């Protein structure tokens, strides 16, 4: 993939991320527990504040992320790139911590909590690897891990899209498997959509990484021939 095509991809992702973040964060930005999309645990008063913090932190990371991959921004505004990077990683750290607390008190199904836990672990570990790489001046490794991390950041947004397709696929089973209960069908569709989104995002990230490596290899080969 050429640099120009890669830049176009990141702008498309940036638009999608902004729209998705606005949709996901809007109910929580109003700080009204009645608007929560998740069932709140009445025995744990901090459940809603933690949920708000997690959603808003994830939304900020989601919006910032694509701009960190634009070569022009890195080259022309390195200080801004580093500042946004620090904000992004801080959002991931605090978002992961709040996610753990939410999982503990959540009233959601075991499957849903397990999926959320897997996502939080991958989110934090990939961010840690990216931070470690940049501290050791391993620039290419840092960028590779940031691509993986941002793919995880976008899972919640992509899961909503995949859930729509899952609903359409499961609708024929509404009166059989789900005994006519659309709420059960929707819950299953959301869980299925989450795992599909996680797998697709990881695969897309690895494709981007592979394409980038091939481009760098070609550049190095060209430079070597010119030197020779």
From TrEMBL:
Q: Keywords on this record?
A: Membrane, Transmembrane, Transmembrane helix
- Bilayer-crossing residues are 7-25, 45-67, 87-108, 114-131, 151-172, 192-210
Q: Which Pfam families match?
A: DUF2306
Q: Membrane as a keyword?
A: yes
**Does this UniProt record's set of keywords contain Transmembrane helix?**
yes
Q: What name appears for this protein in its UniProt entry?
A: DUF2306 domain-containing protein
Q: Which organism is it from?
A: Thermosporothrix sp. COM3
């Amino acid at each position: 993939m050429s640099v120009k095509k890669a830049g176009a991809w990141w702008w498309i992702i940036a638009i999608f991320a902004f729209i998705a973040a606005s949709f996901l964060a809007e109910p929580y930005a109003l700080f009204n527990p009645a608007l929560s999309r998740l069932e709140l645990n009445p025995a744990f008063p901090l459940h809603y504040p933690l949920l708000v913090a997690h959603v808003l932190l994830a939304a900020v990371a989601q919006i910032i992320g694509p701009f960190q991959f634009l070569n022009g921004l890195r080259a022309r505004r390195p200080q801004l790139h580093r500042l946004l990077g620090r904000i992004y990683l801080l959002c991931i750290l605090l978002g992961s911590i709040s996610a753990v607390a939410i999982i503990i008190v959540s009233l959601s199904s075991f499957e849903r909590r397990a999926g959320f836990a897997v996502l939080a672990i991958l989110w934090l570990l990939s961010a840690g690897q990216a931070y470690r790489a940049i501290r050791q001046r391993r620039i290419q490794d840092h960028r590779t891990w940031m691509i993986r991390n941002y793919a995880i950041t976008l899972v919640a947004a992509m899961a909503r899209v995949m859930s729509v397709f899952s609903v359409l696929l499961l609708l024929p089973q509404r009166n059989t498997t789900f005994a006519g209960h659309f709420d059960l069908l929707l819950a299953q569709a959301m869980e299925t959509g989450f795992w599909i989104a996680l797998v697709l995002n990881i695969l897309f990230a690895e494709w981007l990484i592979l394409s980038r490596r091939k481009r760098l290899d070609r550049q190095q080969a060209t430079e070597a021939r010119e030197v020779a």
